Amino acid sequence: PYRTEGGPVSGIADVNYAYDFSGDTYNFYMSHHGRDSLDDAGMQLISTTRYCPNSDPLYCPYANAFWNGAQMVYGDTYAQGDDVVGHELTHGVTEHESNLFYFYQSGAINESFSDVWGEFVDLANGADAPADRWLLGEDLPIGAIRDMQNPPTFGDPDKMTSPNYYTGSSEFYYGTGDNGGVHWNSGVNNKAAYLMVD
What we know:
This protein is mostly helical. It is 38% helix and 6% strand.
């Protein structure tokens, strides 16, 4: 490991972002929900940063982040967003709590829970300009990837009757079927969360 609990700061920026934002997420869940880590039993938080699958130049730099069932994994620069780190960790919370089926509507709720709690971590950190409120990933070099206040900004639906609501196939690979639109259709609950909070 490049950094462990209580150890010195790493010379790798992504390692420090993952470490600090994992701590922020842990603290958010503990202080607001009385939850001790992802499993509510003190589960160790492990992150891989600058992930590059098999060093394959087709997939590197890896432009995403994911929860793999045991730890967080971030492509180069993807640990730089506290909302992204909170998002991935919340997938772990969902897995240990409701374990929502990761297809179609239940998968969209799973994704939205991660967006919502990722944004809550971001809001609790208090560093965002008002224009960045409800944007997911605005601190990444690529910029925001979802707008929870106005999901259609990124082509996501804000209600089930939206023409953006995905009803196609459930092909596994994101971009061709997105497991039944789990990322796209998360916009419905994201908009609901925005409306309830603001």
